[in-house]
Amino acid sequence: MFWLPAGSDWGDRLASEPGTGHLNPLNPKTYQVLKNVIRDVSILFPETFYHGGADEIVPGCWKADPTIQSFIANGGTLSQLLETFVNSTLPYILSLNRTVVYWEDVLLDGIVKVDSSFLPKEHTILQTWNNGTNNTKRIVEAGYRAIVSSSEVYYLDCGHGDFLGNDSQYDQQAGGESLNGGSWCGPFKTWQTIYDYDITYGLSEDEAKLVLGGEVALWSEQADPTVLDARIWPRTSAMAETLWSGNRDEYGKKRSAEATDRLNEWRYRMVSRGVKAEPIQPLWCVRNPGMCNAVESS
């Protein structure tokens, strides 16, 4: 079906983007298929984590199904549907000796979410992507381990506009104001933005221990193998240095100038190895280290 029926409000959409379709938690065949998939993936990838998804549930899609309509008419709720889904899949994932990772929505969504009693803290990790450090704080305060993928910083696909056709928002004249190119998560996330981010900002020492690390995301609406290298590198290298080595020196000062020189060198090393990483400075700056800094090095 068309993802946004004519005349409908955004809240009544059938998907957040084309195409449409959700798994039906009330259909027993859903779990027959899922258990086969979960088993096969666990065999292929022996890592101890298994990502269970459960993000961005669109109520309009579930509500369009007759069996779910009947369920709701008899007093059921959308959150109970999600609880049914989690309660029918999480134990099976645990039986394969995996720790389950869910997107934060499963606990923090404003409309469809499960009670924390359905998510055992010792076996569940939550991956955050909304509201920056605020949602990280909410997750660890609830006692869960967290993986940080804040869209404001770590979404590498952002800043390239939208992929929908016939989009009337481009008819608007900006009048000197930026409209982020029609991208919901614009602007483009620069390596400096990524390098500057502190995934444990505002957390206590004990809370920070629950943050396992971070993960960048490159969603594929506008990315394919022809642009893969440039979208990922060297921005992901900036994240790696921040998470592995920190972005401050022994005096607590950001190491941005030093990082620029390191990333320049690393970028050219990747290019020499056949990785089409994008440049972060003009070649003149690379050949004259420190001369393109905003502040002269002492």
Describe this structure in words.
With 298 residues, this protein is an alpha/beta fold. The protein has one domain (10-223): TIM Barrel (Alpha-Beta Barrel). Helix content is 38%, strand content 8%. The chain is built from 13 helices and 5 strands. It has a 5-stranded parallel β-sheet with strand order 1-2-3-4-5. Helix 1 (28-44) packs parallel to helix 4. The longest helix has 18 residues, at 78-95. It is globular. The termini are far apart.
For the structure shown, list the relevant keywords.
298 residues; alpha/beta; 5-stranded parallel beta sheet; globular
Mean pLDDT: 93
Q: How many DSSP H or I helices? A: 13
Helix content: 25-40%
How many structural units, i.e. domains? 1
First and last CA, distance: 63 Å
Low-confidence stretches: none
Family: Belongs to the glycosyl hydrolase 20 family.
Protein name: beta-N-acetylhexosaminidase
Domain Glycoside hydrolase family 20 catalytic: 9-246
Catalytic activity: Hydrolysis of terminal non-reducing N-acetyl-D-hexosamine residues in N-acetyl-beta-D-hexosaminides
Gist?
This protein is α/β, with parallel strands linked by helices. Helices cover 38% and strands 8% of the residues. β3, α6 and β4 (145-148) form a beta-alpha-beta unit.
List the helices and strands and how they pair.
Layout: H1 28-44, E1 49-53, H2 59-63, H3 66-73, H4 78-95, E2 99-103, H5 105-108, E3 124-128, H6 132-141, E4 145-148, H7 151-154, H8 191-196, H9 205-208, E5 211-214, H10 228-232, H11 235-245, H12 256-272, H13 283-287
Parallel strand pairs: 1-2, 2-3, 3-4, 4-5
